[in-house]
Specification:
Strand order of the largest sheet: 2-3-4-1-5
Number of helices: 27
Structural class: alpha/beta
Number of strands: 8
């Protein structure tokens, strides 16, 4: 006899064998017990969650001559035997993907008028029903609304949003949930016990996570691994090898390299993965999942049960989570999500992966909110460690000595009110002098002048996380002094600087006004802003 895959050999034949869908099984069993069987059902859910299996069991149970106490088919009567062998004329399975035309649907509707030759019901199971054409749906609609009393329609789909609302409104809808890792692992243990196989628990957990809630996918992966290593106990490392996956250790190494900005180390990590024969798309999936686990740990204190990892792995995750900010993790996950889309069908997977890693390590390449926060965090860490070096405008061939480093900055006369207003008007030029990260921090400021005209004011909103971080950076005495020096050099006068955090609900432009427009209104003088 030809070999049958695990998911086919052990496909459930009674309701008690259906795992992870208790809410649906209980409802259908109650309908069979009370003889309140509907005429149309819509089974929805992701692949491999039991839609077609439950439809077959229900079809057999509705016609079984000797159903069991839980309403399951007996498996011994003439109808059950014919249904199991696929010879029953009263259970008709249709693949809508290959029978999507209106002519085929009309042919099906024409057969509905003939009563069942055996049993009580004639059951039509239409798989992937969303693949029907609009004309085919229209042809089905009237019959679905008022079918003969002996007809049951069971429609199954993985994409319920493509099913017309007119069809859905005539069906009892049942949503099949993704199965939990625990449910999948328990089922695999049960089946490998029947087969006399041994598999390491850690490996079964990995297969269950990889299956993403699909029992069929899990059994297919398990079948693949057992076929490759048929003798002895199947280990976790062997499963990783067969499925082209990587151990969590290399995921931690990659994250450490990204956080340190170690380009060479990250490239070597990718090289190791490629040379080990691992699939880069799956590596990207695993790393994204790793980042997701870290994000969950930082989001709440009671995520241990949600993560479903070993105690040792959880300890490592907590240690890693302490090293990285939530905003940075979100940026990493967004970049990895974009990478996964780009990797599909692209032959240059390695190049795309390496570019994404460089993009993560160089937030200055991006201009979105999370990238700016990442850059601000990097700047803050550099300043705290003393490794930040301000830009120097000194000639390249100059060699300052220790006394030069203590050189007193050029003295400027105290600014008068016109100087302060001129600084506000020429803010674009001052930002250009700053350059780099400092220029972007200054870009976020609302620039105005104090009411008495004595100082230049930079206002940031507390409600904006990015502006609040910028305010924190500029509030440091050495940073404020650096900006005052830039302003003085540009204007030629010493302009006092005030940095404010707007904590009120009033918009900062309304509360503190616009310096240039106020000056023009008071003096009648038109101020032209510099264009850089």
């Amino acid at each position: 006899m030809a070999y049958q895959a695990l998911y086919r050999r052990y496909r459930p034949r009674v309701f008690s064998d259906v795992k992870g869908q208790d809410h649906i099984v209980r409802t259908l069993v109650n309908q069979l017990h009370t003889d309140r069987i509907g005429h149309a059902y819509l089974f929805t859910g992701t692949r491999g969650t039991g839609k077609t299996t439950v439809a077959r069991i229900f079809a057999s149970a509705a016609n079984c001559e000797n159903p069991s106490e839980d309403a399951s088919p007996c498996g011994e009567c003439a109808f059950c035997r014919m249904a199991r062998e696929g010879n029953s004329m009263n259970v008709i399975e249709i693949d809508a993907a290959s029978n999507s035309r209106v002519d085929e649907m009309r042919q099906l509707i024409g057969e509905v008028d003939y009563p069942p030759t055996q049993g009580r019901y004639k059951v039509y199971i239409i798989d992937e029903v969303h693949m029907l054409s609009q004309a085919a749906f229209n042809a089905l609609l009237k019959t679905l609304e008022e079918p003969p009393s002996y007809v049951i329609f069971i429609l199954a789909t993985t994409e319920v949003h493509k099913v017309p609302i007119t069809i859905m409104s005539r069906c009892q809808r049942y949503d099949f949930k993704r199965m939990t890792i625990e449910t999948i692992v328990d089922r695999m243990k049960e089946l490998i016990g029947l087969d006399g196989q041994e598999v390491e628990d850690k490996g079964l957990n990995f297969i269950a996570r990889r299956a993403d809630g699909s029992m069929r996918d899990a059994l297919s992966l398990l079948d693949q691994c057992i076929s490759f290593y048929p003798d002895g106990k199947l280990s976790y490392d062997q499963i990783l090898s067969v499925l082209g996956a990587v151990d969590t250790g290399i995921l931690s190494d990659l994250l450490d390299g990204l956080l340190d900005g170690n380009v060479a180390g990250v490239m070597q990590c990718i090289e190791d993965v490629v040379m080990a024969g691992r699939e880069l798309t799956q590596f990207a999936v695993d790393f994204t999942w790793h980042l997701r686990n870290l994000l969950l740990l930082k989001s709440a204190d009671d995520m241990e049960d949600v993560l479903d990892v070993s105690t040792e792995h959880l300890a490592r995750l907590k240690e890693e989570a302490s090293k990285v900010d939530m905003t940075v993790l979100m940026r990493y996950i967004n970049i990895m999500s974009e990478l996964l889309v780009d990797l599909r069908g692209n032959p240059q997977k390695r190049a795309l992966f390496e570019i994404a890693m460089i993009r993560i390590m160089r937030p200055q390449m991006d201009d979105d909110y999370s990238a700016v926060i990442d850059r601000l965090d990097n700047l803050e860490q550099r300043m705290a460690s003393g490794s930040f070096v301000a830009r120097s405008d000194a000639p390249a061939d100059s060699h300052p000595n220790s006394s030069d480093s203590d050189m007193v900055k050029a003295a400027f006369p105290d600014a008068v009110e016109d100087d302060v207003r001129q600084a506000a008007a020429q803010w674009k030029g001052i930002k250009a002098r700053a350059g780099g990260m400092l220029s972007q921090i200054l870009e976020m400021a609302h620039v105005t002048v104090s009411e008495d005209g004595s100082s230049l004011m930079l206002v940031y909103d507390e409600a904006n996380a990015m502006q609040a971080t910028a305010y924190k950076q500029l509030s440091q005495p050495e940073k404020k002094e650096e900006i005052e020096q830039l302003v003085s050099e540009h204007i030629g006068a010493k302009v006092p600087l005030v940095i404010l955090l707007n904590t009120s609900q009033v918009d900062r432009t309304q509360k503190y006004g616009d310096a240039v427009s106020r000056f023009e209104k008071e003096t009648g003088i038109q101020v032209e802003e510099e264009d850089f």
